[in-house]
Amino acid sequence: MTYLTAPGLPEDAIRARARDGSAAVFPPLDSYGTAVFGGTREPGDEIDALRLAPPVFMPGRLAQLIELGREPLYSDVRLTTGLGGFDAPLPVYVSALGSTRVAGTSLALSRQAGRLGIPMVIGENVAPMNGFRSSGDDHRKGLLERILAYCEELPDGVGGLCVQQSTEDADSEVWNHVYSDSAVSGLLASGRLGFEMKVGQGAKPGLGGLTMISEAVAADLEGQYAVERLTDGGAVLRCSSPGTFTDEIFRRQIQLMRNNYPRARCWVKLFPGRDVGHAADIAWDSGAHAVTVDGAEGGTGWAPTGFLGHVGLPLAECLRRVEPAGRTLLASGRVWDGIRAVKLLALGARAVGLGRAALVAADEDPVHGLERLLDAMALEMRMAVSSLGRYAADETGPEDLWRPES
Amino acid sequence: MTLQIDHSLAFAAAPALPSPLEHLRDPRTRAALRVQQALVAGARAYLRADDAVEMAHPIIGPVTDPGSRGAKQVDVDFYGHRYKLMTSAILYKQASLLAYDRIFLIAPNVRLEPVETSTTNRHLAEFRQIDVEYAGATRDDAMDIAEGLVRHAVTTVADECGAELAVLGRDPDTLRRFVARPFARVPHGEVVERLRRDGYPQAEGTEIEWEAEERVSRQAEAPFFVVGYPKGSRGFYDKESPAEPGTLLNFDLIAPESCGELCSGSERESEYAALVTRMRETGENPAKYAWYLDVARHGIPRSGGFGIGLERLTRWVAGLDSVWQATAFPKLAGVVSP
């Protein structure tokens, strides 16, 4: 454990899972026989307030019984899935981590995600801020270092890497550089390289990326980004442009991605805007392989506190407004456990993004933290999905959920 | 809705290039470069007779043609400022019309194309273009000029390069026949339809893919134009058709004999607000194009123009297998060479 904190997330629980893995899905093992448990946790948002609602009668379980010739168990639940052109061992990917300082655990995270074959997104501004190939700063690793760390560990047949490009990244031609770099030739040849167009993020809808930098760094970046001096002689706020979009600009940018990078997957990340459903439809119609919706609960390296509390639609409302209709919808926002993941799958997502939770896990244990957190998630997901009488994660649906107001 | 098709992810290994000792002493190389000289002379004569002024354009600048299809630009450290080697002269061509109504140049360009282009036989990382821009020209005008120029240059070679064509095994009368008739003008959608009818999975709404382009080129009996590429496949400076939104007033000239595209051109967008909007549609940051947009805000003439790939034209006229054979010191994507 180093310096990282995650206000708003159950950080202690995440760290416990990163240390103890599946054992942390249960109460402390030494309390067995000496304690009794019950009650509910405090709801944090509408998704937390939802309950999974298993039915008594389960034709799906009967089908599985017939298939297996024995009573099915939770361990029979299939979690493998295809998402946005990649195959994954469970319906989880690691969300974009950008150039912000807390993403400095990025190499450890890249290695773990690679080893596990979990798709991963590398965030915007990494190349212009931290360099394309390398950087001397332990907290800011160059784009290619992150890519190589992932690829070195990646087994055959699973996973995939998406690279975001912001408006400032476009100046640095990040996608062009990545697309023809020998570091990604293996990913390209196996269909495991993607590019993600970032329209925005949940924690600060309508704003671009924000990071705090030193005065010395600010001097180099002033022509490229807006900078804001928040205190006299103190740290400086660096602001990316959010980029201007209309439906036509949006459509054409996606078509250009498909035109220019035919061998790469095309992902689009939307912030929780009120027209998120319309935007998702345009993205899919224009050729996006996956659309990510980052709810207002989503994490960030830095944002105005007013935005965290008051701007953007909650993830549950976004999912009501988006109709995937068989197309790949990815959801992120305060995901750290298997139960929230299964609820999001039941609400229409194909897979869920781990952002802050992945960082905390890698911070807790740079070698095995993410692996244990995912072990715990997978166990919870299998138990939850099987309790619904389903035996594949993508078989869940809205009928598996109960809303308190209903 | 745009129909998108996912493609095979594999591509062939790049060819090994001969050493300069071998390549420059090869009689076919010498003959091809002589043919190239005649093509340039023919193009110059045609354009000068049309009162166009030959200009010498910058090699580096703060910004260049963003291009498409994943080609990288080359950065140059210009006294602490990031400059680019020119990928095409388009921005300067439009601005140059403030000085003359008709301009042309024989311009070097550098594009670090994706490595899979090393096997297309028609991509070089470093190449030259016969670049032409006429104020007030429509797309049809620009195609007329391109057609006339190619016809004149090819005829010049057929008339003056008998010995070289003999070395290359090229019949001058074949060349004359290729350019004897007007070049057909086929809408992009029609080409896509034809390819799909023939079983090729060409996507709508995107470029004609390299393999598909070779296929239509192989089937062609003479050079022909493909007109009206969709938005989302080309640069911000190709004007959108007011009559057919989503379609650009642009064209490619396709050579026969599997040689593919020789030339791209268009009626240009010159209106400031449209340029800024189109830059965003192509994912560009307008701030990067400050000098160009400043000129545009004060009024760039309406224009049409094109760029003919000199090595591609040479490859076709000389009957070469690959475009690298039409240059003395070839640079292929991803291949280290002198």
Give structural notes.
The complex is a heterodimer of chains A (406) and B (338). Chain A contains 17 helices and 15 strands. By secondary structure, chain A is α/β, with parallel strands linked by helices. In chain A, strand 4, helix 4 and strand 5 form a beta-alpha-beta unit. The longest helix of chain A is centred in the C-terminal third of the chain and has 19 residues. The radius of gyration of chain A is 21 Å and the shape is globular. Chain B has 338 residues and is an alpha+beta fold. Chain B has one domain: BirA Bifunctional Protein, domain 2 (2-Layer Sandwich), CATH 3.30.930.10. The N terminus of chain B is likely disordered. At the A-B interface, helix 7, helix 8, helix 9 and helix 11 of A face helix 9 of B. Chain A: This is Glutamate synthase.
**SSE sequence of chain B, one letter per element:** HHEEEEHEEHHHEHHEEEHHEH
What is the first-to-last residue Cα distance of chain A? 42 Å
- Reading off the top of the CATH hierarchy, the class of the largest domain in chain A is best stated as Alpha Beta
Count of helical stretches of chain B = 11
Largest sheet of chain B: 8 strands, mixed
For this structure, the quaternary state is heterodimer
Protein structure class of chain B: alpha+beta
Arithmetic mean pLDDT of chain A: 88
User: Which structural class is indicated by helix and strand composition of chain A?
Assistant: alpha/beta
Trace the largest sheet of chain A across and list its strands.
4-5-6-7-11-12-13-14
Shape of chain B: globular
Low-confidence spans of chain B: pLDDT under 50, at least 5 residues? 1-5
State the helical fraction of chain A.
Answer: 25-40%
Number of domains of chain B: 1
Spatial order of the strands forming the largest sheet of chain B: 1-5-6-11-10-9-8-7
